[in-house]
Amino acid sequence: MTGAELAALIISILSSTVRISTPLALSSVGEVLSERAGIVNLGLEGQILMGAFAAAAASYFSGSAYVGVLAGMLAGALLGLIHVLFSLKFHASQIVLGVANNIFALGFTTVGLVAIWSNRGKSDAVPGLPNINIPFFNNIPIIGPILNNHTLIVYLMLAFTVLSWLVLFRTNIGLRLRSIGENPKAAATVGINIERLQIWAVTIGGAMSGMAGSYLSLSDLNLFSRNMSAGRGFIAMAATILGNWNPFGALGASLIFGFLDAMQIRLQATGFPTQFIQMIPYVLVIILLAGVVRKVHAPAAAGKVYERS
Amino acid sequence: MSTAEHSPSSWQHNLQLWLKNINWRSLGSGVGAFLLSLLVGSLFLSLNGYNPFIAFREIFTGAFGNKYALAEMLVKTTPLIFTGLSVAVAAQAGLFNIGAEGQLLVGALAAAQLASFDLGLPAVIHVILALLAAAVCGGIWGGIAGFIKQRFGAHEVIVTIMMNYIAFLLTSYLVNYPWKAAGMVPQTNPVVAAAALPNLLRGSQLTIGIFIAIAIVVVVAVLFKSTILGYEMKAVGYNPQAGATGGISIAVMGALSMVLAGAVAGIGGGVEILGVHGRFIQGFSPGFGYDGVAVSVLVNSNPALVPISSVLFGILRAGGAFLERNTKIPGDFTTVIQGLVIFFMAAPRIFEAVLKRRSK
Nearest by CB to B332, which of A95, A111, A289? Predict the structure, then answer.
């Protein structure tokens, strides 16, 4: 292999890393917002799937992929809203709700698939998002080709990650949000409207998972297929933990997982048993949670609903 | 209380006690959640342009139409009893086992591999051996999550989810490489005749697996009802502080309940292989472990009631497949109902809110 070929290979692997990581990072950063506000959203998988379906359906009927992305975000936001309202108003277990969300979404989208396209496996082709060529990147070696020629969602993902970090750690709202996740009683005592912030955080988080779904159906294959999310919601959850509940951490973890997956896909073609590479994210999460390497710190009150006494 | 329970002459009294012990409120919320899910599910079907009445008629026919339909329904019910029981067992000790899927997979593969060798053993022994291997492997898989939870405090929900994926990938590796049967399909060699479960109805897939399932339910129910070990597990689940004050080790009981939960799911995987598939085929489980969460949640994790909710979901599964074959209505409709049931069960206060409003 010549140097030029090697460089091309590396660029191609890193470019697919960006593509694979994008939905993971979107969903994971959304989960960071939810959990920082004290709500564990185990329904990422279902929100991604629902987002992918809504995006494909809306793009199919409207003819515009951008309308599709909006529909995907709306679907994810709606599921997020249901999740947070059920946990706050009816004190439903956030874990059970998440499981319900995932099962419901799988059934719902498959029935929808048959109802619209009369096919249980996959939809017809739908209008997809175009790749965007940013001339500025053409002048930068290595980084340029890796970051250039992706769909809009890749760049939105980067923007959302930065924005989430800024809001969480550089604004008053972020400070309040984090205080809810750590100590809701103290937050309530200083007059923070806990529920309102939680509703916003989880709904926005859901919208980000919905957008992650729209990336799956509108950026690569340009169709919806049954159970398209294929466990990405749980990997995103893993990225949230690995990223220590920080948006940049979540992005970093998503990139690592994306890179592993990109490598795995290349190696699969050679007949190499890739299962152990694919296992790495899951094993890493368990090791990290067990605190063997470094103790990660979850928001102290995540998963518990605060009840005014 | 125990004297009254064991007095032979007072079966009426026993019945009364039993009826008293049933938590009618929780049973009511289960029935309510199920009916509400059917209602919302019907609405959803109508919106998609399908006739819900036809759907329910077909689901019913698919589950009860004739003896083969009934057998098929019980075949679909069997693995749900195991995974539902697995989730319920852990819940008794206050843990949420989302890992029944992974525990079932490793159990299934262990049983399949052991059952594929001709050991020259009598049929009964070979079956028991294979299911024992399934129980041990499933138990270890569940126990890992239980141990990590108790030793390091890592939340069992996340750990069991991760363990599900690790189990899927590990079994995928084994069945694609070292243990792969000749041919294109990633599967193990077929189970030898001595290790196959005896069939109950010729022309159906119904085996004694359903009896094994019921037997394990009885064992678990008795364990929690009348043994000290079961009492201690429940005490830890009900109130960890009080349990600890009473000298019960929370860590040991929690970990033990996960071992037990894993063993039950593992046996379920073994029974599914020895009874239905005859070998481990990659992807044979359509998510039995996740269905188990629904099964357990519907009966508020009461092990003795698991068979009832398993049958309800078995009807939906068998009926769903029938629906798909005979109408244009997608069988996945039953998955929607399943999700809705868990939604409504998760929020018992919905019913309380409704009742309150009515009493006003």
Answer: A111
